[in-house]
Design brief:
Structural class: mainly alpha
Order of helices and strands: HHEEEHHEEHHH
Number of helices: 7
Strand order of the largest sheet: 1-2-3
Largest sheet: 3 strands, antiparallel
Radius of gyration: 36 Å
Amino acid sequence: MVYGVIMNFRQALKYRGGWWGLLEHMYTNGDFPFKFGTYMGCDAAGNRYYENRVDYPFGQHRWVEPGDIHNFDATQIPPEWHGWMHSINDCTPHYEEEYIQEKLKHVKYAEISHNPFKHNIGHQEPYFNFHHMHNQSQIRSRGYGIGNPIVGLPPHQPDAFYTQPGSPYNPGSFRKFEMQGDLDEAKGGGRPYKNEMWRQRLMTEEEKLAEREAEEDMMLPLEEGEKLEPERKLTARDLAIMARGGSLRN
């Protein structure tokens, strides 16, 4: 047993390029440093895929070693390699592409086509997955204005997952933030407020006193013999007349 452990360490040191690579993989990937197999290929994210059908049972004979060992997510495995990892097919993706290209050479077309594309989808703009993550629902901010350091989303950046047009998380449902006014509007601005409570907090004691005095002046008692006429309740017809710019009769 001790001899087997020593031999595994020796092989792992050679396989991982020294002590630093071995310890780094031990810290991040568990048993991967001591798991050896045949290199089958890699993807755009730098993930490396291995296979060993001799030393490991079915279900453990294929594995992936992530390109970014410090920030790896299972959704970074592309669909074509996902099928190979789960033994849905035995051919790696580049063999499948070669097979398709070979079969296309033998396809007989009934009519001459000047279409530059070999499929019925047509032109497509190149699509790039954020940090090679194929599950876009995880690319969302963890709070307002802080982004998501786990997946690398910078602060104040929009989420990547799709939302319905009527969803409160859809950008079209966001209301634009607007201030109600500014206490120093006559001086060019400087004390904006968004509601009445905010306005009261920004006002100085002198401004509050002047506002109360102005309200008291509007509530002075009527002179003797003067009567306050009751306000007329506007009907729908009156509102329509005023909307057209007309005037109401007394």
